[in-house]
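Just wondering, does anyone understand these tokens?
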Amino acid sequence: MNLPRIILGSRSPRRQELLSQLLPETVIEVVPPADPEEPGFEDLHDRDAIHRQLISICTAKNEDVFQQRHADASVPILTADTIGIAKRETGDLVVLGQPPDQPDWQETVKQWFLEDYAGKTHLVLTGVCLRHHQRVLTQIAETQVTFYDQEYVRARLDWYLSTQESLGKAGGYAIQGAGSIFVNRIEGSLSNVVGLPLETVFEMLNR
């Protein structure tokens, strides 16, 4: 894989760090999408609908960056979007995005940890979009994350909330940070949970 340049359409320093594990930093140009607003998942509770929305979001980010740069189509543009998904007692799937930008954000995260995560397995999905020449490739990576039980989580949750690490994190935790103390096991890509599934990106770049 020998690319002279690639554009990463992201505001996330984690994604840039991850991509630099596959490619030299000197070939990565970061161009965040101009529009920070993204469609939500509030009314979507089944897997197919969530998948379609996730692909729509990462594709729209890619188009945003392409229009900004009026880029040479020979320069690949990579964009991604990561979400957490929990299964409620009703059987509905619920997308857990970033905690709300409100003073009571801790109550939201506490509910996620105790009701959706503790002693359970939730999903982390990342939609990836790669534009190169006339081709637009999309793919979704999925990782299963299992937390320790209620007693374990409850005993450490107030401390974790005090770190404020949850802010700006999909699902309200960072597996590469202090949030890792809650994780019992993962099945699938670790880098996917951080924000960019390297296995998927490697495959797409080689295609």
Summary: Helices lie at 13-19, 47-69, 105-117, 150-163, 190-194, 198-206. The longest helix spans residues 47-69. The chain is about 35% helix and 25% strand.
